[in-house]
Specification:
Blueprint (H helix, E strand, L loop, with lengths): L2 H20 L9 E8 L8 E7 L3 E7 L4 E7 L7 E8 L6 E9 L2 H7 L3 E6 L3 E6 L4 E7 L10 E3 L2
Parallel strand pairs: 1-7
Antiparallel strand pairs: 1-4, 2-3, 2-5, 5-6, 7-8, 8-9, 9-10
């Protein structure tokens, strides 16, 4: 390698280190995260179908009985561009209610919403909640069959 190449590599590493550490990320080991989707529905026809994906990964369909959890783990992209979204269906033959939602985003607001490295989504008969692992509170995030622009967030400790 020539001296120019070595300087260029050094400059790139320095830039990455400054950018990434200023945003709270480790240079060579991106943060490990877990997304969980738990079925807490208790009414009749309480089976839940879950389908999660990112731009690069389709995680397939998973059917959950009451109290079952589907989870997946991943390492966040070094430039904080990771995004996973999920679709959930409930009802007989999974055709009564549906919702699509962002399950994880590298955005700082999502990390604050989840409270840490685990983003736990709890699906109940009335709505979809996220559990904040730091505060131990559930936040109402998505109603069934309602476009996202019409939802609002309410915190609840139950």
């Amino acid at each position: 390698m020539t001296m120019t190449h070595l300087k260029l590599v050094g400059l790139i590493i320095t830039f990455q280190y400054c950018f990434i550490t200023s945003h709270g990320y480790r240079l060579w080991l991106p943060r490990h995260h877990v997304v969980q989707v738990e079925n807490e529905m208790i009414k009749e026809h309480n089976k839940l179908r879950v389908h999660c994906r990112s731009k690069d990964d389709d995680l397939g369909f998973h059917d959950l009985n009451e109290t079952e959890i589907y989870d997946f783990s991943f390492r966040e992209h070094v430039f904080a561009t990771t995004l996973f979204w999920c679709n959930v269906w409930k009802g007989p033959d999974f055709n009564k209610h549906h919702q699509s939602f962002e399950a994880f985003s590298s955005d700082t607001q999502w990390k604050l919403l989840c409270g840490g490295k685990i983003c736990k989504w709890v699906v109940r008969d009335d709505a979809i909640y996220v559990f904040n692992t730091r505060t131990k509170y559930y936040a109402y995030v998505y109603a069934w069959d309602v476009p996202h622009g019409n939802t609002h967030m309410i915190t609840s400790s139950t």
